[in-house]
Each structure stands twice: as structure tokens, then as C-alpha cells.
Amino acid sequence: MAEIRILLVDHHLRYRRGLRSILEMEKEMMPVGEVRNIQEIQNVLENTPIDVVVLDLATAGDKAAEAVSTIKSIRPETRVMVLAHEANGRLVEVLAAGADGVLLKDVGASGLVDGIRGLARVGAYLHPAVARVVLEVLRSVLVDGREDAACGEAVGWGGAQVPAAVAAPTPALAVHAPAGEGRDASRGEAGWDWMVDLESEEAGEDRAPGIVAPLTKREFEVLQLLAEGRSNRDIAKALVLSEKTVKNHVASILDKLVVRDRTQAVLVALRRGWVTLS
């Protein structure tokens, strides 16, 4: 498959670096730019060919639909993948504006990669919970042809009426996809909990550290090299260790951070400011 040139749009530096770290582990994924707000998107698009824009919904705020329209006006062929915390009718608005896909932030690293890959390949990709919202809207608009009286106030959507029960999060809609829907149950991925933790941290909320034991100085050195994308063999050469010793250090790091793989370990380290990306 040809390389997928990706632009990341998110106001959190650590989020962007974390996303970039995930994508750079895939040979066909090529993050070619990062911007912190929607005002910076236009300059990048006018000067750099982009296949997929990964747009954080919270970063775009109430101008998400406008941002999507701007992207499409500059580069109609560029696909737009929106990242959101929950499935609600606001996502229908950005889809109507031209977004090509939506992922919720519970999908995990493999879900992110699969979503971008699917979007680049077939031109559209929806998280299952978002697909459900879209179906609710279509049923209301196309089948009923009117607002359900039980839904209360409606909001506008391209001239049609979207029931407020769909436009606002509800227990039925604003949920994470169950195992097997947007989340790789066989791999047991924990999703992007590091993103949620970071938001809690910035809001001053208490949170469980999720670490069962402190890392040693050597383990921090190994973790930094993991963040740089080094293989066990490269790490062994850099630290003058055997590959078996490096494997033992990596296993110990995973156990102490209570994560399942190297990618999750790096994301935890990035969130806590323990490592930097080369």
C-alpha cells in the first residue's frame, strides 16, 4: 500500500506526539505535519500534499464543521478523520460538512491505525457507536419525516431536523464501543486511557498512578530508547547489554507500568514527561 501522508490537528502537544509515535510504527503511515489549532491547517494544506487530516473535535470546538469545510475547499481529495470522546449528534454535523470518518478515543492504537488505513483505502470509516447515531438521524429524518414528539427540542442539520435526543449525549449513545466493536478484544488493548488521564491531570483531579513499582535508572534508559523506536538489538548495542537482558528490562517495564506492549509503555512515559521523541 502507498504511503499515507497524515496531518495531526490537536491542541495538546503530548497527544500529538503520542499519536505520531503510534503512526510512525506503521511502515505505510507518514505523519508529515502537526498543528495545534484549526487556524494553522490552511497554511500546511496549501504547501504540503496531505492524504488524511486527523482532527481532534475538542480542538476544533464549535468551529469543527467550518474547519472540515475549509480542508475540503483547499484539498477536496484529502480525507478527514475526526477524533471524539463520545458519539452524539454533533458528529453528524461534521459528517454533513464533509468529514469522511469518525473514531472515538476508546479504540486503542490498533483501532486508530485500522481506522486511518480503512479511510485511506475506501474513503470512509465510522466507529460503530457513531454509525448508530447516524442511523438514528436517518431514521428520524427519512423514515419518520418529522421530529419524534418524545425527543423534545430539535437542532438543525442541513435543513433537516435532528432530534435533541440524538444531538445530546445519552446513556444509550454516548458509550464506548464494546469489545470487538472498534476495540481489539483479542489484543486486550486498554484504549487511549492516557488521554483521559492527561485531561484529569490538567484539571487538577486525583487519579490512580497505575504503576506498581518505580523504574530503575537502567529501565528509564531502555524506555527512552523504546520511545526513539529502537529495536532490542539496537538498545543492546547502545547500552552494551545482551539482547536477553534488554528483553528482561522491557518485560519489567511493562509489568511495572501495568501495560501490555511497548507502545503503551511509551505513551505512559510521554504523558508523564519521562521521555522525549527523537
TrEMBL record:
Under the heading InterPro entries, the entry gives: CheY-like_superfamily, NreC/VraR/RcsB-like_REC, Sig_transdc_resp-reg_C-effctor, Sig_transdc_resp-reg_receiver, Tscrpt_reg_LuxR_C, WalR-like, WH-like_DNA-bd_sf
Give the modified residues of type 4-aspartylphosphate. Answer: 56
Sorted keywords for this record are: DNA-binding, Phosphoprotein, Transcription, Transcription regulation, Two-component regulatory system
Q: Which PROSITE patterns match?
A: HTH_LUXR_1, HTH_LUXR_2, RESPONSE_REGULATORY
Residues annotated as domain HTH luxR-type = 208-273
**Which residues are in the Response regulatory domain?**
5-120
Please name the GO terms that the record assigns under molecular function. Answer: DNA binding
Q: Which SMART domains match?
A: HTH_LUXR (SM00421), REC (SM00448)
What biological-process GO terms show up in the record?
phosphorelay signal transduction system; regulation of DNA-templated transcription
Spell out the PANTHER family in the cross-references: TWO-COMPONENT RESPONSE REGULATOR (PTHR43214)
- The molecule here is called DNA-binding response regulator
Organism, by scientific name, is Kyrpidia spormannii
Q: What is the lineage of its organism?
A: Bacteria, Bacillati, Bacillota, Bacilli, Bacillales
